[in-house]
Write a structure and sequence with these properties.
single chain; alpha/beta; four-stranded antiparallel beta sheet; about 30% helix; extended
Length: about 375
């Protein structure tokens, strides 16, 4: 039988999709067992299937497939087992063609947020938006005076022409630069349980990438330019660009990034970033800090602070918090709690050293990361720190 497969060229991580197989038997009727050779390890429902194919007719069978990793993958064909009419023999064969697909981060939440305003989208993410102190720096429009407007907002020339009070309205400065720096080293290989986010057992890097794309999308909506630097394992660089089309470029550049079991050289990353990013901007580094990273990271931050505003988001394992908060009944429980407390104390010392260098530090779990990044970005914009 001839077999063709219908599957989207782009899939989303952790999102179940339907794959359809169409079989044409030829001139004879045949009974066949069908199993699609989808990428190994993916969760599949509806395979294998047994079909009775009628001559001259196309039979279709569908099954559900859930990707469990990002990157490029291939379907190696369709495995068929044909049964003879008298059930005296069975024949195995491989049909169909090899087909490749790309698995991206789950960008469906972004499409839902695109239907609402940027302010409301920020609240839906979980960010706590502070009220503005003062006014924005970019002129937005003229409008009629409203109760509560300050006298500084009144445009007296426009008021005299219109013979009624006219106020200037300002907005946050646009066309600023945001560069997300993603750690692709060994620290980001840690994995969390399903309660931490979308999908089962996603790595810290998967959560960091999802949160980075989220804050990048919001910054693009607010008129800023967004870039990406991946460092540690595989290196990638996307220069800052404006416009909502830039989110597609960020997705294409990062969908197949994977953390590698290598140590991250923060000083080398800072040197590369200082050479590539000349214009002042906001740098958001997403990593997982340890006490042995203190010296290298402090040197890297001092280099970047000469021109940029630096935010460090340090992911914290939920298992450490659970070990510290767990009930202590026996000696192993006490040792586990004491080790967790010592580890968190050393980690806090690194964060304090960064704060002494006027670096904004976010100590969050992976489930808190998206809201924390968005909240910090909005606070920096509202305070005019760039």
């Amino acid at each position: 039988p001839d077999v063709s497969r219908r599957v989207p060229e782009a899939l989303a991580l952790g999102v179940e999709r339907e794959v359809r197989l169409e079989l044409e038997p030829g001139a004879r009727a045949v009974r066949v067992d069908v199993h699609d050779l989808h990428p190994g390890g993916w969760e599949a429902h509806g395979l294998p299937r047994r079909l009775a194919l009628a001559p001259g007719m196309v039979s279709a069978v569908g099954y559900r497939l859930r990707p469990d990793a990002r990157g490029d993958f291939r379907f190696d064909g369709v495995h068929l087992r044909l049964h003879s009419p008298l059930r005296l023999w069975r024949r195995r064969c491989l049909a169909g063609t090899v087909q490749t697909v790309r698995v991206f981060p789950d960008f469906a939440p972004l499409s839902k947020l695109a239907l609402v305003s940027a302010e409301r989208a920020s609240r839906m993410i979980g960010a706590h938006i502070r009220r503005r102190r003062g006014e924005g720096t970019d002129f937005h429009q003229m409008r009629e005076y409203r109760v509560g407007d300050s006298l500084r907002q009144i445009d007296w020339k426009a008021t005299s022409r219109a013979r009624k009070l006219i106020s200037r309205e300002y907005q946050d400065e646009q066309n600023q630069q945001l560069v997300v720096v993603l750690d692709t080293g060994r620290r980001m290989l840690a994995r969390e349980p399903a309660a931490c986010g979308i999908g089962d057992g996603l790595s810290h890097f998967d959560h960091a990438l999802d949160a980075s794309l989220l804050v990048a999308w919001l910054a693009l909506r607010r008129g800023d330019a967004v870039g990406l630097l991946a460092t540690g394992g595989e290196r990638r660089w996307v220069p800052p660009r404006r416009g909502m089309a830039a989110i597609d470029e960020l997705l294409r550049a990062s969908y197949d990034l994977q953390p590698e079991p290598v140590a991250t050289d923060y000083l080398a990353a800072a040197t590369e970033l200082a050479m590539r990013q000349r214009r002042r901007g906001l740098l958001m580094l997403v990593t997982n800090l340890r006490d042995e990273d203190s010296e290298d990271l402090l040197a890297a931050v001092r280099m970047l602070q000469r021109r940029h505003l630096v935010v460090v988001a340090s992911l914290r394992e939920r298992a450490i918090d659970e070990a510290l908060e767990g009930e202590v009944q026996e000696l192993p429980d006490a040792l586990r709690a004491a080790a967790a407390a010592r580890y968190l104390a050393q980690r806090a010392a690194v964060h304090d050293a960064l704060r002494h260098q006027r670096v904004m530090v976010l100590d969050v779990t992976c489930e808190q990361l998206p809201a924390a990044l968005v909240e910090k970005y909005l606070a920096i914009k509202r305070d005019g720190m760039l």
